[in-house]
Amino acid sequence: MTTTPFWIEKSLEEMNQQEWEAICDGCGKCCLHSFIDSDEEEEEQFSSTDVLREGEELLYTDVVCQYSDANTCACTRYTERQILVPSCVQLTKDNLKDIFFMPQSCSYRRLHEGRGLASWHPLLHDGSKQAMHDAGISILGKAISENDVDLENDFEDHIVTWPEQDRD
């Protein structure tokens, strides 16, 4: 007898903490520096948002948080990440509705939007990330640590589109 996988049987809201954590594919894209580019000239008119407004675009860079492991794409300080990096956003069931800031390939976003897990997801490969790496989804070999970049002067030189890519 086969059992239905929990990610098919349950909504994200119904998952326990262990199941919730297992949904993360570990691609590392959420650890990339990103920003909202706005048509608004005046910074004074800009305010925090939970949706993209007209004239705004979410842009990704290839610059990754200093705590990201270049070989595993995982956070080296996961349990203390929000203390060390206050701007690190922790995706939760409560802020899932504001998921626009996550890449299209994000497994939480895919499930939230009804697209299911991608064929490369580690849960479908006995926990191995190799299919994800082979599909070009992860940051493996594509990102540079924020410690190696002059963010004040070179930030725009690191804008990339590959984090927006999704497969199946």
End-to-end span in angstroms?
28 Å
Radius of gyration: 17 Å
Q: How many domain modules?
A: 1
Globally, the shape reads: globular
Which residues sit in consecutive blocks of at least 5 with pLDDT less than 50?
none
- The average pLDDT value, as a whole number, equals 89
Strand content: 5-15%
- Supply the helix-strand structural class: alpha+beta
Number of helices: 6
Compressed to H and E, one letter per element, the order equals HHEEHHHEHE
Biggest sheet character: 4 strands, mixed
Q: Please give the number of β-strands.
A: 4
The helix content, as a percent range, equals 10-25%
InterPro entries: Puta_zinc/iron-chelating_dom, UCP006173
Pfam families: CxxCxxCC
Protein name: YcgN family cysteine cluster protein
Structure characterization notes:
By secondary structure, the protein is of the alpha+beta class. The protein has one domain. The chain is built from 6 helices and 4 strands. The longest helix is centred in the N-terminal third of the chain and has 7 residues, at 17-23. The mean pLDDT is 89. InterPro entries: Puta_zinc/iron-chelating_dom (IPR005358), UCP006173 (IPR008228). This is YcgN family cysteine cluster protein.
